[in-house]
Write a structure and sequence with these properties.
The protein is built from twelve helices and eight strands. Strands 1-2-3-4-5-6-7-8 form an eight-stranded parallel barrel, surrounded by six helices. Strand 7 (211-215), helix 11 and strand 8 form a beta-alpha-beta unit. The model has no long low-confidence stretch (mean pLDDT 97). Helix 7 (143-154) crosses helix 9. The chain has helices at residues 20-34, 51-58, 84-90, 100-105, 110-122, 135-139, 143-154, 160-163, 184-201, 204-209, 223-227, 244-253, and strands spanning 9-13, 41-45, 63-67, 94-97, 126-131, 166-170, 211-215, 234-237. The longest helix has 18 residues, at 184-201. It is an alpha/beta fold and 256 residues long. It binds 1,3-dihydroxyacetonephosphate. The site of 1,3-dihydroxyacetonephosphate has 14 residues, from strand 8.
Length: 256
């Protein structure tokens, strides 16, 4: 498996943080601090109400804007939901789908993750598809089975051509927001398992071209070591993405 075949992507997931005015400042600061850092793509996934202002602030810079979820229907009676065309018109190029917080707190399942992913791809959005095991699953020794199953179910019916617009983010749930980071070897092991499953579903070329990020307490101190692993092609960063200086240091670590 060759790392140089893949694009490195450093993405921030702001979660439920930042008002529109705060978003404008944070995007500008991030863009200034990461200007000319072309060794990776830089994405900020922001709350729905921040997308338009964030996209405007990012215009002409190397920062791209994403959303944190999207509904699979195009329009209609789905109170509180947002469609792919709404995201696109507001200026989003990416969308996170299947984050563990959506799975844990909002009833997201592999079936709805798959439907949302298909809708987003059909609309021309790039998808950051999140999956990962919870602590009990890791302790029970079934991490490989869990991530393999999620990968298969979440990618069901998606063509090799569409796979090119998907990034998989491996996010062990026990490492999210806990300060407990997977070791580089743990991250590498599971990212490699995911890549093998993708090779089985598609082919070796598709698997070698797929960007697989690690997410879970990645920060400016641990990013370089995690990113040095051959199957870790970037990061999905929560807390540290809220501080442009910290996020920019992670982008720096991805320039190697
Ligand atoms: P933290 O970096 O805050 O642990 O969050 C990771 C995450 O969930 C990114 O989607």
């Amino acid at each position: 498996m060759k790392k140089e075949l893949r694009k490195v992507v450093i993405a921030g997931n702001w979660k439920m943080n930042m008002t529109p005015s705060q978003a404008k400042e944070a995007v500008k600061a991030t863009a200034e601090l990461t200007a000319g850092k072309n060794g990776c793509d830089v994405v900020l996934c922001v709350p729905f109400v921040d997308i338009a202002v964030a996209a405007e602030a990012a215009c002409g810079t190397n920062v791209k804007i994403g959303a944190q979820n999207v509904h699979f229907e195009e329009k209609g009676a789905f109170t509180g939901e947002v469609s792919t065309s709404m995201l696109k018109e507001a200026g989003a190029e990416y969308v996170i789908i299947g984050h563990s917080e959506r799975r844990q707190y909002f009833g997201e399942t592999d079936e709805t993750v798959n439907k949302r992913t298909k809708a987003a791809l059909a609309a021309g959005l790039k998808v950051i598809l999140c999956l990962g095991e919870v602590l009990e699953e890791r302790q029970a020794g079934i991490t490989a089975e869990i991530v393999s199953m999620q990968t298969k179910l979440d990618l069901a019916g998606i063509s090799a051509e569409d796979l090119k617009n998907i990034i998989i983010a491996y996010e062990p749930v026990w490492a999210i927001g806990t300060g407990l980071t997977a070791t580089p070897d743990q991250a590498e092991e599971v990212c490699a398992i995911i890549r093998n499953v993708v090779a089985g579903l598609y082919d070796t070329a598709a698997a070698e071209g797929l960007t697989i990020q690690y997410g879970g307490s990645m920060n400016d101190a641990n990013a370089a070591e995690l990113l040095s692993k051959v199957n870790v092609d970037g990061g999905l960063i929560g807390g540290a993405s809220l501080v442009p200086e910290k996020f920019a240091k992670i982008v720096d670590a991805a320039q190697a």
